[in-house]
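pasting input
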Amino acid sequence: MLALIIRELKLYFITPVAYIFTAIFIMTSMSLTFYFGNFFSSGVAELSVFFSFIPWVFIFFIPAVTMKSWSEEKRLGTIELLLTLPLPLWKIILSKFFSTWIFVIFSIILTFPIWITINYLGNPDNLIIVGQYLGVIIMSGAYISLGIFFSSLTNNQIVAFILSILFSFLFTISGFPLMINFITGFLPIDIVELISSFSFLTHFSSIQTGFFSIKGLLFFVSFTALWNYLTILKFMNRD
Amino acid sequence: MLKVENISKSFGDFQAIDSLSFEVKIGDVMGFLGPNGAGKTTSMRVITGYLKSDVGSIYIDNKSIETDPIHAKSMIGYLPEGVPLYLDFSPYLYLDYVCQVRKIQNSKKNIEKAINELQLQEVRDVRIETLSKGFKRRVGIAQALIHDPKLLILDEPTDGLDPLQKFEVRKLIKNLSKKKAIIISTHILDEVPEVCNKCLIINEGKKVFEGTPNQLKRKVGKSLDEKFRKIVN
């Protein structure tokens, strides 16, 4: 499994695409924080504003990274070589997930200049910031598992990209007041509560404070496990 | 070495393989023939465990591809149709990855051996994407051979090679056949008597001929192309 993860990481970094994606991710998250988040004028030494924009950036950034994972294997036909290797299917599927996760973690870590900036300007609680970074990393796993599943459905990267954005967006905003008010008009309250319970934003808001709630943590871990399992099921029933 | 027992595979209403059975032993080179759409590629995909058969069994050295896929797959070297490769890798990097994933001891020695046997020295560090069709096919054969498998399944191994390279690959297959069971799918009928000691022809998923190239010659007594047409019709 380690060899597969290393191969995937090499495939990411052997071309300039990974570097471009990482640069775009860093620039977008920084721009949103500095220009739209009133980072300097708030006068508070914390990174909550920065982390509040991350789920919105993930909606586009992570599907761009995951769209290639299975659809490219299907397009090239290398999926046939991969699935005839003497390895259990779950190892092959999870190697895709973990390699993408490592790449995304690498991109998240590269936002460290903002952390240095805030330490230069004030005295933030660095323990909280570490907790917030860990929360973002755990949440990114949920977006990645979703994106990899949609990439497994098609050999067209663009289709995988659009489907992943759509579902990432829906799971992100399902707890958003605007969305809840909209669906409350025509859905029973129990269904509305169920939909909003799947919201990334709702669960992330507890993690965003830097203090992990067991509920939020369990949600993202089980969500990630579920979508990885669905990808395994997809390949178990391949034709 | 390979025992295929009564396998069938359908995609919706389309019956791709219909009750196909055959055996390949160590020392055999079996030519797998049939018109386009006959079910050759599907058969190979089922034998290698890429697809599951609807019914029937496949044993590789007495290991079932269904119930013991890890052991069964470890004995297969496979060159799929169209030679799929990771185009951003160089042949060396790609073969190194195959060695790592197959947990081959002394991987460098195996890589060098495969590179020499397939004459890939001049392109070993060149991106696969930029290689000619012939070189790509040789990289594909190299990855199928690198773990010294007992069963080698090659889908059109000489397609796209020049006459000299074809000769070299055929020579390599003949040499390998002493210790391996080999299945070659090919459209080049003249290749069959030259390389194979067995041949199997399928049409519409069913076996229509199984025997030696000499038996095939005797069956109709004309050119191989004509015999092939007569059998599949």
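fyi Residues 2-236 of chain A form one domain.
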